[in-house]
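Folds abound. Consider this:
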Amino acid sequence: MTLADLNALPPSSRAEALATCCGATAWVTALNQQFPFATAEALVTEAERLWEALTEADWHEAFTHHPKIGDVNALKAKFASTATWAAGEQGAVRQASQATLEALAASNATYEQRFGYIFIVCATGKSAEEMLALLQARLPNEPDQEIHIAMREQAKITRLRLEKLLA
């Protein structure tokens, strides 16, 4: 879809489209109220500004709209509306060894138990081994530090998905 197409959508349809980019309801609502946009860059800039202004609870909500890295079953079932994008973003995981997949699963569980949300990383262009190394490197972080790292990773994902939406 083009930016003109997105601008022309009824607000409810546009909200559905925006929700495929980021699952935070407050973000979708706030960004949807800013339409129309003159340029894609103006849209992305406003999307990023609004994301950074959200609460930690809003960030957590957005995180729930992602499958765990490497969780193919979740990609198929829970995330049907973004499964194609998520599968492409996590494409390297399909080529990972069984040992790497098991380590990802175990580290994901440890991360979620420690921080209260799944590990969020912009997976595009990263191998499973790279994502595992990032996950393990972030486990010792303090919760206040980690939430901001995860928030910035979500911002990268949202930007990429907005660009895909307008492609």
